[in-house]
UniProtKB/TrEMBL annotation:
<keyword id="KW-0732">Signal</keyword>
<feature type="transmembrane region" description="Helical">
    <location>
        <begin position="441"/>
        <end position="464"/>
    </location>
</feature>
<comment type="similarity">
    <text>Belongs to the TIP family.</text>
</comment>
<dbReference type="InterPro" id="IPR028994">
    <property type="entry name" value="Integrin_alpha_N"/>
</dbReference>
<dbReference type="InterPro" id="IPR057089">
    <property type="entry name" value="C2_TIP"/>
</dbReference>
<dbReference type="Pfam" id="PF23122">
    <property type="entry name" value="C2_ITFG1"/>
</dbReference>
<protein>
    <submittedName>
        <fullName>T-cell immunomodulatory protein</fullName>
    </submittedName>
</protein>
<keyword id="KW-0325">Glycoprotein</keyword>
<feature type="signal peptide">
    <location>
        <begin position="1"/>
        <end position="23"/>
    </location>
</feature>
<dbReference type="GO" id="GO:0005886">
    <property type="term" value="C:plasma membrane"/>
</dbReference>
<dbReference type="InterPro" id="IPR024881">
    <property type="entry name" value="Tip"/>
</dbReference>
<keyword id="KW-1133">Transmembrane helix</keyword>
<keyword id="KW-0812">Transmembrane</keyword>
<feature type="domain" description="T-cell immunomodulatory protein TIP C2">
    <location>
        <begin position="368"/>
        <end position="434"/>
    </location>
</feature>
<keyword id="KW-0472">Membrane</keyword>
Amino acid sequence: MWLFKVNILAFFLLFVGRYETFALQDVTADLFGAENYGTVAAFGDFHADKQTDIFIIRERSEVVILLADPKPPYFKPKLHITKDTFPKGTVITSVVPGDYDGDSQMDVLLTAQISSKSTTVFIFWGHNQTLDMSGWLALNKTFTDQPLIMDFNGDMVPDIFGVTDVPEVCYLTNRAPACRDALSPTIKLRVPHSNAFIDLNKDFAADLFLTTEGPKFETWINKDGNFTKVEIMPAEPPAVKTVGQSSFVDFDGDGYQDHLLPVCLDEGCQHSAIYLAKSGSKEWVSVLSDFQRKETLWSFVPGNPSQPLALHLGDYNLDGFPDALVVLRNTSGSILIPSDRSSNIISSIWRREMEGVLSGLCFNDCPEDVKLPYTVLGLGRSANFLDHLFVGIPRQSGETAIRKQEWTAIIPNSQLIVIPYPHNDPHRWSAKLYLTPSNSVLLTAIALIGVCVFILVIIGILHWQEKKADDREKRQEAHRFHFDAM
């Protein structure tokens, strides 16, 4: 018995050791070579080659774009925005790639602080899969916090929404900046904010969620292309000491986005909780307040303006249900876990290869295959056909008809490309479905051929046995004595 247990233990350790060896490998050198330093700021397909490129901030003053390459190192620096481009003392705070002038070329928007806490916006225009380093634009507005990139007017081109003295939205179509007052002049956004451009009432038009001073919340619903303030969620957070950043996810799978809010229940954030508010409800529900595991009590790390308390949502274990990633600290004193800001890890998960789609601004006349704007999303693994898939886009001011279309009987594990063009005529939108052949197709064919051969062999054997029985019966009939012949 002891020998059996020892052998089992040895096999288990050998298996775990091999699994860890093959599952956890340091591939930093293969991915980045000697360029593995800086802060990962954004991802995007800059070269329109169906590969995900990485935007890096270095020394808070420069931006490097690492382009995907089929040979190691798989990400190589190709474009460099140096600190000499900006005014002296510029500190880069974020990078937001996108098509801001509507020419289907990826531009690069940078936010920065120049000798103050106000946020300045720089835009570098994309041209022939590179950046125009001489014709970049500095927006003549400074914002109190990071602006929100959103399609404010429903023209499929991203706009810049933020607060100067009052809320404003800036349009950059045709590279001609035009800023207008937006919403209400009395809005004072919380710093840092967690505003969101998201569909809150399931009408296939993205609405605007604002976090304001207090802290409080405001919801502006997109009605006929215009934003109208409607209280469809609680306007105030629960009665707690510290309120974190708002996040949204379909928590219960009913098709509506729910409001998730991490909080600290006391001044020292020794006790934490996560609250949820559903669309159409004015009540907060605690969905998690027990952070104790065995003898260890965990809690959130109190946030600060540069790294606020926030939930990072996603399906991390691929089970079809939303998960939350957050930094915790040990508050029970049983083990030592560093809780200073330097111990926190900001992680990013991305897919290196992307399936290119056509642009939302053109159809047959697109200059190349992969053009902005487009988005890639996953519907999850399913063994059955997807009965209904609804696709919608924002509508312009004064337009009452909902821009949405429905597709049925979608094949699972396939790539579906939806081209919402022309925008105001959803019935003319097109969808292309692609199936990627894999080894499973060959294995399925081999299995099918094997089954057919097996069935043919059985049929042949049965036919042969039946023929033998017929011959035996004929011989017996030939030797039978006929009394009627006498």
